[in-house]
Automatic annotation (TrEMBL):
One of its GO terms (cellular component) is proton-transporting ATP synthase complex. Subunit e, of the mitochondrial membrane ATP synthase complex (F(1)F(0) ATP synthase or Complex V) that produces ATP from ADP in the presence of a proton gradient across the membrane which is generated by electron transport complexes of the respiratory chain. ATP synthase complex consist of a soluble F(1) head domain - the catalytic core - and a membrane F(1) domain - the membrane proton channel. These two domains are linked by a central stalk rotating inside the F(1) region and a stationary peripheral stalk. Keywords: Acetylation, ATP synthesis, CF(0), Coiled coil, Hydrogen ion transport, Ion transport, Membrane, Mitochondrion, Mitochondrion inner membrane, Transport. One of its GO terms (biological process) is proton motive force-driven ATP synthesis. Belongs to the ATPase e subunit family. It comes from the Eukaryota. This is ATP synthase F(0) complex subunit e, mitochondrial. Its main location: mitochondrion. Pfam families: ATP-synt_E (PF05680). Residues 45-85 form a coiled coil.
Amino acid sequence: MSAEASFPPMREYKPPVSVSPLIKFSRWSALILGVVYGATRHSYLQRKEDNMRETVERERALRKALREEEKKLKLKSELADLAKQVGVEKI
């Protein structure tokens, strides 16, 4: 068995057609415009996301401070209730 017998015969193709310069220009223009649009859009969205992250961080810090304050007040209240139950007066 020879190697040529196992493959189908090669097909003859027509020579490639030359592409119009207008089409080439249009393709390259679309590619370049797409890259520029993508870069500007990414920059815009990045700034927007950075602003949103700063806002979220500020709100997170504020919520944490409020939780800590509530925790202190609750602890103070519980200690006062415990002292009242045990019969200890404030010092």
